[in-house]
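Inputs:
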Amino acid sequence: MFKLLILLLYLGLNRYLVVSEPNIPVVITTWWFSNSTVKAWEVLKEGGSALDAIEQGASVCEVQQCDGTVGYGGSPDENSETTLDALIMDGKTMNVGAVGALRRIKSAISVARHVLEHTKHSFLAGELATQFAVQMGFKEESLSTSESKQLWLKWHNQNHCQPNFWTSVKPDPSKYCGPYHQIKKNEDMRPEVQMIVDKYNHDTIGMVAVDSNGDVAAGTSTNGAKYKIPGRVGDSPIPGAGAYADNEVGGAAATGDGDIMLRFLPSFLAVEEMRRGASPTEAAQTAVKRIAAHYPDFMGAVIALTKTGQYGAACHGIPSFPYVIQDKTRNIFEVITIKC
Ligand SMILES: *[C@@H]1O[C@H](CO)[C@@H](O)[C@H](O)[C@H]1NC(C)=O
């Protein structure tokens, strides 16, 4: 009887120990961007840092132009130029490197890493971020391709600059191209019309990783929204919006209607919810619901990962949302698709 008790106690304790052992290293990635996940996993598996995994993983998408929404040659702005946004956050030091509206440099996340490691700043933008990148040895080159030029020509010449992101201007932006002028307060003001977006308009690669030391990092890279107004910076490079990481808790990343999402800092909120004891899925749901309460038609998703390797996601405004995970319990990456 006594022996049985000891055995039961042992089994119970053993199970508890197995369950509580952290499942690290681990990486999760938005959408079906598995090649980036594979690259990040290679880094983590060899004992590399979460920061390296994020940078090298996201770089794969920048080179492969994932869905045309990451890297060069996608999402031309109103002037037909592709500009890039990227963020990398170190959850160990709470240091951030980010670039917004980066011009003529292909490897946005690596420029962000240089902002993190070679400056006391957190965020560089536009033409002057390009100057910084060139100083750091990055190659300056056009980000346009024949595909992005074709996309722009069709938008401009056939579709009369539809869709676009203007409101309360004349001529009527829902019918005509610019240049636009503001409508004065006493003139006819139309309410903001939410843009109908196709599913390839707002994808971003967002990644969160925990390395074998237990260090957390997160990052994003994107070429933003198609036909954006030149100068537009979305949610992706904003710490707490596009991604967030904190060694004490874990990390999160977001993708979707960036102009709306960045107003709610969904990645920060998801991390704070996990800090308060929420599961990653609950945390992501809270972040998504906060936005939906104000913008029921918004489209987006949040992925979340704890420092011990528990993960989850939530989405809104699309039928389903896939994300990719790789950890040591899997021989290869797994794509998990959730319903929204
Ligand atoms: C992964 O990369 C290969 C080329 O190396 C490419 O053919 C494939 O489409 C990529 N997969 C995804 C999901 O992008």
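Residues 32, 34-35, 64, 66 surround 2-acetamido-2-deoxy-beta-D-glucopyranose (CB under 6 Å). Flag for discussion at group meeting.
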